[in-house]
Structures are given as structure tokens and as C-alpha cells.
């Protein structure tokens, strides 16, 4: 593994990353322990399969063509402690509820990708936490969040533990997706309860009633709402491909095709802090067959993004690459247009997705938070830019939870600074709570409906031949 000691000609293409600068890797204190964890991971079965991964690429190709919408969401950082049946259920439930609302708004399929079953490592701004003087918490796959020196020591066996936690989660997620939990009529009943019982929901009575009518119409037409197609969903998994040893150990060459896939999740994304063109992350992930995401922050130049897009999708495969822009509400309207123009003019087809969370983090008396209005404003900006350029606003990437936490400010429940202490439970970044996430889905659905109405009106105005 220590590639510096191996002659260059013996390095597998999948290990070239070992010769390149790798940012945000833990300082593993014991390389023998690391080797042992790697060997264990490499011998374990994959978490997902190559055909599933290819199905997601096909679904994302539909998004790239403007025929579908992508919804990606979940925790900033999953933790072993919060990996309980109820919390997993409620996260999946929130995603499914959002997806139904967005499907109605967009009148197209919604591709559902959870940040789940592997989101256990975090890039950090600082190696040392200023409040404690301890090494920063880097996710449960690396160290423990408890504020002691022993807890913060990076332990490679935690990567093996996070594999097992991911397997447990995935087992439940698969059961929820196909075992009746995701039944369209039931998800709609949950949305009706949200609309009826919450201040946030009451604003969306009209849309909920319209969805109800659409379901009644389908039933009247003889469509069986109890059929497998409507009681199950396709739910894919994703996480940031940050820990290179973990991702490499779960990269497997498919017998049937001879192609490598990172089978730790269906979709893997590269973070804003590790997307260097000459870096290890871009190299490893450029070589696997999964759909790849890449975060794009406000400092990225159009040329740099085009180069990244070519590097990550040289064959121009639709669905292979999702560019997840996370500019900040105040910057998106200026920063995004030149990037879209550059990539669309010469580059590969991409899915354009909006992460309205990471450019809008702020500090309130030492607590990391985000304001719902900023999140919404960035989403509005994203839609405005795409409308002006005639491109498809393909998706949303959200940090959310299925619980009633108080981590982000605002929303219809008007969470204020004084409320942040109530249920602030995230291990890293502040997440939208269920109500805020559903509210966002209804607002985006309204936007999508309006955009459809405008397109239809424009078509009617076209002169006939
Ligand atoms: O999730 C994203 C990053 O890991 C996170 O925003 C970094 O947070 P920090 O600035 O507190 O290190
Ligand atoms: C680290 C993250 O985001 P970014 O790379 O965009 O900062 C994240 O999605 O949690
Ligand atoms: Mn985050």
C-alpha cells in the first residue's frame, strides 16, 4: 500500500491517487492499523451492485435531458449513535414526502438519492478545534466527537465500523423502499397531516388538495394505486467520497464488464475542499463507473469547472456527472451563469443541482446555523439563472433530518436565535428539520409549476407554420 516504496510500473490505475496530494485525510497514527482496516474492508462484500449503479446513471441521464428532477438529501454527518430505526425511518419518510410534492410540481419523475448509509466522514476548516484545542472531529468513520484527546485520535477500525453501520442502514432503507412503507397513498396521507396540523403546512392546502384530486383521477381511470409501481420506490444511496482508503477498498472490478465501480454507494460526490484537478480524490473517482457529483463553490472559475467536468466525464456520458453548486444566496446570481455557459458550450452533459446549504452557513454566538430565507433565496436564484439561460434546473441537494430539530433559523415555525439551544443535535452542519424541508419542497413545487405554466404559455404564442 505504501506506494512510494513500489515501482511506478506496478501501480494499478486505481492506486495512482496514492502518488498524488490528498487533502482532508486523517493523520492516521498507526499505518499497520490502517493496513489491517483496509484489508478487512477489501474482503467484505460490496454494499451496492454495479447494475444498480448503472440504473442510477440512467435515471440521472433523464435529469440531464430535462426529463426528471433530482432530490438528494440527508444528514451532514451520520453518526453511529443516531443510527436508530426510528431516525432512519423518519429521514426516509421526509425524503419521500418531499419527492411526492416535487413530482407533482415538476410533473416529471423525481430521482431520489439519500445522503445515507455511508456519510460518516467530514472535511473540516481547521485541524484543531479552537474551542477545545483538540483535533477536530472528522466524522464517526475517523474519530469520536467526545471532547477528549483519546476520543479524537483517528482510528482506522472506525472505517470498518462505519461499513457495518452502513450495511445495517441500507438493509432498512431497502425494506422501506419496497416493503410498503413508500406507498404513494400513504406518503400523501403524511403530507395531508403536515398541511392540516402545522403552521408551515397550512399555506399549501391548495396544492395538497390538487394532489388528492390527481390521485382520485388516477384511481377513477383504473390505475391500481396498490400496484407494485405505486407502493414501492427506487431509493439510491450517496455520500462524499472523502476517505480514500475506504473508497478504494470498496472499489471492485465487475467480472462481467471488467469495469471498476465504487460499491460503497450508488453515487459518490467530491467535496468543495477536495476537488483539485491534480489531487487524489479527482483521480480515484475519475476511474470508477459510478455517477459522480462534484461540489462547486463561488471561487471556482468557469475554466476550472469545465476542466473538472471533462476530467470526470471525458466520454460525455449523460448522467455520469452532477455539478452541485453551493454558492451562497448573495453570490449565485452572478457566479453561476458564466459557469453554466462555459460547460454547456463545450463540455459534457451535466446534471445541474443546487446545494443551498453550504454557502449559507453563519455563526450566531458560536453556533453554526443557516437561515431558511437564505436557503430559499439561493434556490430561487438557481431557478432564475436556469430560466434566463434556458437550461434545466435539475435538482436539489439538502442537509435535512426527519426530526423536529432547531438547527436552522426561520421557516414558518419562525425558529429564532433563542431557539437554537432547544434541539441542536447535528454532529457537524445545521440541517433543515422536517417542517422546513417539507416547506421547501412545497415552495419549489410551486416554482416548478409556475415555470411549466410559463413554458406552456410561450408555446401557445409561437407562430404556427
Ligand atoms: O459539511 C461540510 C463541512 O464539513 C463543514 O461545513 C465544515 O465545517 P467546519 O467549518 O466547522 O469545519
Ligand atoms: C462538506 C460538504 O459540503 P461542501 O463540500 O460543499 O463544503 C457537505 O456536503 O457536507
Ligand atoms: Mn455539511
TrEMBL record:
<keyword id="KW-0057">Aromatic amino acid biosynthesis</keyword>
<feature type="binding site">
    <location>
        <position position="429"/>
    </location>
    <ligand>
        <name>Mn(2+)</name>
    </ligand>
</feature>
<feature type="binding site">
    <location>
        <position position="399"/>
    </location>
    <ligand>
        <name>Mn(2+)</name>
    </ligand>
</feature>
<dbReference type="GO" id="GO:0003849">
    <property type="term" value="F:3-deoxy-7-phosphoheptulonate synthase activity"/>
</dbReference>
<keyword id="KW-0028">Amino-acid biosynthesis</keyword>
<feature type="binding site">
    <location>
        <position position="295"/>
    </location>
    <ligand>
        <name>phosphoenolpyruvate</name>
    </ligand>
</feature>
<feature type="binding site">
    <location>
        <position position="358"/>
    </location>
    <ligand>
        <name>Mn(2+)</name>
    </ligand>
</feature>
<dbReference type="GO" id="GO:0009073">
    <property type="term" value="P:aromatic amino acid family biosynthetic process"/>
</dbReference>
<dbReference type="GO" id="GO:0008652">
    <property type="term" value="P:amino acid biosynthetic process"/>
</dbReference>
<keyword id="KW-0464">Manganese</keyword>
<comment type="similarity">
    <text>Belongs to the class-II DAHP synthase family.</text>
</comment>
<dbReference type="Pfam" id="PF01474">
    <property type="entry name" value="DAHP_synth_2"/>
</dbReference>
<dbReference type="InterPro" id="IPR002480">
    <property type="entry name" value="DAHP_synth_2"/>
</dbReference>
<feature type="binding site">
    <location>
        <position position="76"/>
    </location>
    <ligand>
        <name>Mn(2+)</name>
    </ligand>
</feature>
<feature type="binding site">
    <location>
        <begin position="272"/>
        <end position="273"/>
    </location>
    <ligand>
        <name>phosphoenolpyruvate</name>
    </ligand>
</feature>
<protein>
    <recommendedName>
        <fullName>Phospho-2-dehydro-3-deoxyheptonate aldolase</fullName>
        <ecNumber>2.5.1.54</ecNumber>
    </recommendedName>
</protein>
<keyword id="KW-0104">Cadmium</keyword>
<keyword id="KW-0808">Transferase</keyword>
<keyword id="KW-0170">Cobalt</keyword>
<comment type="pathway">
    <text>Metabolic intermediate biosynthesis; chorismate biosynthesis; chorismate from D-erythrose 4-phosphate and phosphoenolpyruvate: step 1/7.</text>
</comment>
<feature type="binding site">
    <location>
        <position position="115"/>
    </location>
    <ligand>
        <name>phosphoenolpyruvate</name>
    </ligand>
</feature>
<dbReference type="InterPro" id="IPR013785">
    <property type="entry name" value="Aldolase_TIM"/>
</dbReference>
<feature type="binding site">
    <location>
        <position position="326"/>
    </location>
    <ligand>
        <name>phosphoenolpyruvate</name>
    </ligand>
</feature>
<dbReference type="GO" id="GO:0009423">
    <property type="term" value="P:chorismate biosynthetic process"/>
</dbReference>
